[in-house]
C-alpha cells in the first residue's frame, strides 16, 4: 500500500490493462506527468481524482503511420486539428511522414535534411498530443544516405522509402539506405510492392478501357504486394539490416514475413484498420462511393481479412497503424470521372484506430484486450524508440485512456473531428468508446469533450538500439520528448 501522499492526478477504480494482464487498480500521477503508483486502494489525496469504475484504463494509443498535413497560410489548423481528432480516438502520440503532398515545400524536398528542418519548424507548438517524425526518403533527394546519420542524431531514427511511384527508390538506393540504417541504429519502413508488376497491372487495365475506381484493386493484386515484400526482405537479409513492412494487406505478403521471423531475422510489419474492417466488395459500389476506398495496397477479399486477424493474434504482424490520409471528397479526392491512377490514394483513420480494433477485434473475440494494448501501444513504443510510453507502469508517461467497453456507437463522419470530410467506416456499429484521455497527466479529452490546448504536444526525440541484438528492438536513451518550444532539433 502506498503511503498517503499528495498526487497531481489519481484515477480510481478502473481496470488497468497492459500487454501482460488486466487487474483492478488505481493509478497515481505526479506533477511531472509520470506514473508513480499502480495498485489497488491507494490511500492518498490528489489534486484531481477521477472515478474510473466500470472503465478500462489503457495506455494511450501510438499511431506510427500518419500522413497528416502541416499547416499553411490557407489552412492554418490542419496539423493541429488532426491531433485533436487523434486524441478523441484515444491516441496520445502520433508519428507523421513528410512525403510529397503533406505540405513540405518543393524546395525542401531536394534534401532529406531540408525537408526535416522545414517540417520541424512548421509543426512546433501545433499539436494537442505528443508527436514525432519518420522522415520520407525519395528518389528526388540528393544523397539521402549521407544525411541520415545527422537525422538520427537529431532524434529521428525511423525513415520510410517506397519501392513504387515516381518518387520511389530503386534497389541500389534501397541497399544504401539499409546499410545506413544498419550502421546508425535506425529503422527503414518500406512500402513493398513490385514496381514492374504494378506498372504492368495499371497499363493492362487501362488498355482494356478499365478506368473506373473499381479497377484500382485489379491493377495491384496480392501477388504484386507479395513479390515486393519478399524482395524487400531479401535485400535486408543480404545487407544484415532490420526492416519494417508498412500496411500489409494480404496473405501473399504475410508468407515471407512469417518465414523471416521464424528464421530469427529482424523483420517487423504492420497492418491497418481498413484492411481489418473492410473488404474488396467496397469497389462494387457506385464510383462516387468506391473512390473512398482507393488506397494502396487496395482492400482485399474476406479470406485475406481473416488472414490478417490471424497474423495479429499469432505475432506475424507486430502492430496496427492507420496510414491516415486526410483527403477530402470535395477537394483532393473529388471524383469527376478521371481514371483510377489519377485518384488520390488514401483514407482518413486517425480518430478511429482504437474504435475499429476494439470493436472488430476484441469485442468479436478475434484478439484479447491485452493483445490489443500490445498492438496499439506497447509494441509501437518498443519498436519506435518511445521509451516512456506504451504501458501503464511506474515511471512511464501518464498517457492514459479511460475506455467504456460496453458503450455502443455508430461511426459517422459528422461526429468525427479530423480534417477530412468522410470516413470509410460510415455507419459501422461498434462496441466501446473513449471517455477521457490524458497526455502526460494533462486532461485532453474529458467526458467526450476536448479540453486540451494547442501547444501541449511535445516533439519526441527518439533513439533506437539495434546493434546489440537486432531481433530484440528496444527504445534507446533519448530524451523521450521535449516541450514544443525546445524541439526544433536539426538534422
CATH class of the domain at 60-383: Alpha Beta
- Beta-strand portion reads 15-25%
Number of helices: 13
- What structural class is derived from the secondary structure elements? alpha/beta
Q: What profile does the largest beta sheet have? A: 9 strands, mixed
Instruction: State mean pLDDT (0 to 100 scale).
Output: 95
CATH architecture of the domain at 60-383: Alpha-Beta Barrel
Radius of gyration: 21 Å
Instruction: Provide the CATH superfamily of the domain at 60-383.
Output: Metal-dependent hydrolases
The helix-strand sequence is EEEEEEHEHEHEHEHHHEHEHHHEHHEEEE
What best-fitting shape do the alpha-carbon axes yield? globular
Description:
The longest helix is centred in the middle third of the chain and has 18 residues, at 222-239. Helix content is 29%, strand content 22%. By secondary structure, the chain is an alpha/beta fold. The chain has a domain at 60-383: Alpha-Beta Barrel (TIM Barrel), CATH 3.20.20. It is built from 13 helices and 17 strands. Strands 1, 2, 3, 4, 5, 14, 15, 16 and 17 form a nine-stranded mixed β-sheet that branches. Helix 8 (251-262) links the parallel strand 11 and strand 12 (267-271). Mean pLDDT is 95; it is low at 482-491. The chain is globular, with a radius of gyration of 21 Å.
Describe the structure concisely.
By secondary structure, the chain is of the alpha/beta class.
Write a concise keyword list for the protein shown above.
13 helices, alpha/beta, globular, about 500 residues, eight-stranded parallel β-sheet, TIM Barrel, single chain, nine-stranded mixed β-sheet
